[in-house]
Specification:
By secondary structure, the protein is an all-alpha fold. The protein has five helices and no strands. The longest helix is centred in the middle third of the chain and has 29 residues. 26% of the residues are buried.
Length: 137
Amino acid sequence: RPAAAGRGGIYYEIGMFFLDMLSDLNSGRLYVLQGHPFFAGISLGVFLASSVKHGRTCLRMRDAVQASVKKGFWEEGLLSTLRDEVKFEGVAGLMLNVYGLPFAVSGWTSLASQLFTLALGIRGVMRLYSEQQLGVK
């Protein structure tokens, strides 16, 4: 798929990737603040497993993005990292955050934060699903 396709192209997708990671960390923080260490442990465990799995690619993300922009197409390692992140962390995180929504909310700001995290998770899962339906490998 072309690296410059869509709204903002590759930079938009990378930004959303890191925003999703930060929102997942924030969800874990909200579970801790609300006194639910079980949910926090699951949330942070999924985040850490995903980070360990893709740590090498994340460390060289800038080079991979620049190479993708230069070629005009996504670098294979970068694209597989973004897809893998949704397949593993995205689905598990989305299920956890839907189930744990009532436990993480203490006010309007935590509600808005959790709803934003859910929206990012849904976006990622739906994007992956649509690519699978289109036969994108």
